[in-house]
Amino acid sequence: MSIDQLTIRRPDDWHVHFRDDTMLAAVVPHTARQFARAIVMPNLVPPVTTIAAANAYRERIVAALPADSDFAPLMTCYLTDTADPNEIARGYDEGVFAAVKFYPAGATTNSDSGVSDVKNVYGTLERMQEIGMPLLVHGEVTDPSVDIFDREAIYIENVLTPLISDFPELKIVFEHVTTKNAVDFVRARWAETPGRLGATVTAHHLVINRTDIFKGGIRPHLYCLPIAKRETHRLALRDAATSGEAAFFLGTDTAPHGRSAKETACGCAGIFTAPSALETYTQVFDEEGALDKLEPFASLNGPTFYGLAANTGTVTLERSPSSFPEAVTTSDGEVIQVFGGGEQMSWRLA
Ligand code: DOR
Ligand code: ZN
Question: Domain 5-349's class?
Answer without folding.
Answer: alpha beta
